[in-house]
What we know:
- This protein is of the alpha+beta class.
- About 65% of the residues lie in helices and about 10% in strands.
- The protein contains nine helices and four strands, in the order βαββαβααααααα.
- It has a four-stranded antiparallel β-sheet, covered by helices on one side.
- Strand 2 and strand 3 form a beta hairpin.
Amino acid sequence: MQKSIFEITKMDCPSEENLIRMKLDGISNIANLDFDIPNRKLTIFHKGGIEQIKKSILELNLGGKKISTEQTDQNNFEENTNQRKLLWTVLGINFAFFIIEMTMGLISKSMGLVADSLDMLADSAVYGISLLAVGGTLIRKKRIAKLAGYFQITLAFIGFVEVLRRFFGAEKLPDFSTMIIVSIFALIANGICLYILQKSKSKEEAHMKASMIFTSNDVIINLGVIIAGILVNWLSSNKPDLIIGTIVFVLVIQGAIRILKLGK
């Protein structure tokens, strides 16, 4: 048995972990994957060569780089029987907040909330693909990935068009208080998801949970919408909301492209 350690510089939340798991699914010589999200490290236990594994990781464009490969006597790995249940839980939380943020974003006329809702939908898609692909064929997984990816790109493109319309047209200011309040609840929801997904990990990682919450892209986005809401009120302008909305739409498209790569 061999143990290879990869550094994944853009792996900063469980969504990337699931993308990597799906990408490596089907490579028969992999015995176990051990993710260390806070340190952005992935340890792979495998038999035989590493080239196919390395190629698959590089294709995701998550900044993957092999650090080392060495022989190991370890061959027993603890299975997480609650993984499917945990994935259903975080899928439910993310999809619920997609609906909440999309609804409140449309009501409050905030593109920041609309964009953040699509980011929640992107995470839901990753968790959903992971669950639907369990026990399914590789072809089925690829079809689901393509459908989710194209759907997200379509929604993000519609969002970009709306941002441009509001940028050049006279539009009522978004409700800054709704932006802030909903984003605070979304921030809490993301923290809960990260905690749920990490509670079954080793005790050595327990002390790093707090730092993980504050390094997650999802949480940074939530904070960005909160700041945009404050600036909307302070400047009496909708530009901060449009700027954060544009940034998040770009991130959603990047995530959709990664999902589409799973369908190749």
